[in-house]
Specification:
alpha+beta
Amino acid sequence: MRPGEERPVEGGACDGVSELELLKLRAAERIDEAAERLGALSRAIWSKPELAYQEHHAHGVLTRFFECEPPAASWTVQPHYQLATAFRAEWELPGVPAVPRPLHLGFLCEYDALPGIGHACGHNLIAEVGAAAALGVKGAMEGLRGPPPPVKVTVLGTPAEEDGGGKIDLIEAGAFKNLDVVFMAHPSQENAAYLPDVAEHDMTVKYHGKASHAAAYPWEGVNALDAAVLAYSNLSVLRQQMKPTWRVHGIIKNGGVKPNIIPSYSELIYYFRAPSMRELAVLTKKAEDCFKAAALATGCTVRTFKS
């Protein structure tokens, strides 16, 4: 709502307003009521960033949030659900006759951080928005006139988004079974109801050469760092022929031990993204050729590992 704009409280006072719009208003009202608690939740996660699978503080903050959400015991909370830092919180409207398959809505909370720069990706906000959306649906359902439909709301705390794949672990453990639709939101510089998915995989590239003293016998060495630098340069040159929708980003993780030792080992890590698996395969093949060319030019051996 805009500043100063009032929401109608009673459905009967809203001539010409549809039931759907009334439900949206009630959802927004419930979120507004919880705004202070939601803001505190986000700040608590942001103030103590934790890496993948180590989000113990965030896990505790989120599970306490749902355990304490009024009225008391309205959410059934399972801490440490399938993973040490995952959780599950469920709500159903009391008094609704049980049915074999209610409409099952899921909302996701992420809360892991990035190494060195904390919550620069805004996962504290993802956790806040996931919790807020679940509260909003709960508020809308509680405001329904007439017999309510059978609906179940589940909030899943999904750790390790930045590294490791916590959602994959939870999928394999059956956490998403019987969920009809799952929602999450991500911070962005613009509002968008939908963002296209991209195909992505990671690749680790390892070059092996031969160590030698860089001052006394440099000609005896095979420089693995040279191979890494050439590979990085090859991919940089390749960018001119990349499609605008392709993304390639990487780092040199290991480049040697000391300046006076010809590096016998180097390692790069790259991420590749494309709109489809077919295009990702084309992009990956071009990158692999760049890695092989660097090995050939320096006399190193190269091994690539996909994940």
